[in-house]
Design brief:
This protein has 14 helices and 13 strands. By secondary structure, the protein is an alpha/beta fold. The strands form two sheets. The chain has a seven-stranded mixed beta sheet with strand order 10-9-8-7-11-12-13. Helix 6 crosses helix 12. Bound molecules: glutamic acid (GLU). The site of glutamic acid has 11 residues, from helix 12.
Length: about 425
Amino acid sequence: MDTNIRAKTQGILETAVWNIEQAAKRLDLDSEVLAMIAEPKEVIEIWLDPRLPDGKRAHIKAFISRHNDTLGPAKGGIRMTDSVSRDEIVGLSMEMTWKSALVGVPFGGGKAGIRCDPASLAPVAKEAVIRSFTNGVRRHIGPEVYVPAPDMGTNEQDMGHVRDCVSYATGTAITRGCFVTGKPVILGGIVGRREATGKGVVYAIEAACERLGMNFSHQRVAIQGFGNVGGVAAVELARRHAKIVAVADITGGTCNPDGLDIPTLANHVRTADGVRGFPGGKAISNEQLLQTDCDILIPAATGSVITGENAGKIQAKLIAEGANAPTTPKADEILNSRGIFVIPDILCNAGGVFVSYLEYTQETQREQTPIEEVERRLAGRLKETFSRVHHLASAKNEPMRHAAMDIAVARVVEGIIARGTLP
Ligand code: GLU
């Protein structure tokens, strides 16, 4: 197991707090308003004790953080890892508030965590844990409260169990409105949701290359993560003739300066359960991947991997944050001073939550959305949001992250003011 990629999540809350504090200074936010958005509105901690198929009772900690619901119900995925913490979930829920606001969907920010290693569970055991979670937090999930989705360690099958758990409890075939997104298409999920985050990353990179005068098809790309985000981005980039020179996941990495064959690598990952041991490249660690000789680096695995220690050694000219909070504040300063162009997470990986919104409205209206429409709207919204952020960043001569945060925070504040104050 490559330990560098594992559980680098403890700094996510610090990064989220730093981001909002910096934005508050730039926007000269009123202290009363800042107090409302600097901390989550509600955090639930709960112990789950499901009976697993082996007959034993498990004892599992879970969390839900609803950071802010000014613009709509809290939205954000369920993270399932053996190290997930309250702080990590709170930090991620804060980032979801800004991501939803930035990409212009009527959602607030939320996140859930289940502390359990999904790889240690057989499918039936994982289903029992997911159902136990859904039952345990049932009153905190709903189309007007918190709408979960997949995140690290969970997938569309798990969302199918969440959906079924809710309708089973009411004894109905369907639910009243959308309780969860990222479901299997057969259960009302939207086509293209699984690929949405990875495709969004590619649209954001395309837009950045256009602005920076980089010829897309000549770029050498290194990708950390080969799951729903990194794996999809790799396939899409290869289709557009970019050269993927290095890929790593939790099992290890592989590098080939002449370009990795992505379909063969995808096959290897399926059969060998990870990147490690891929015969088409030289073995590298996750740390080596980050510092590899490339033009574009896509951290698409976990948080806090680009740090004060390695930011000075990164060779890429462009960093596209597919993961949530992959860059620590110290690293961000170093990257900015080195003139490296960073597409911030709340913009770069917002394709997932945008298509979740399409799924939410599809289910609410009992409609069906064709893939062409999903893709057209996703590409349009990502490029439009990129332009708005880039325009502000250029006008103010500031990093993209600052511009993205300023737009997002200003929207939430506008919502707070429009709602008014309770007596
Ligand atoms: N987990 C994803 C994220 O971090 C998706 C959230 C959603 O669709 O609600 O953006």
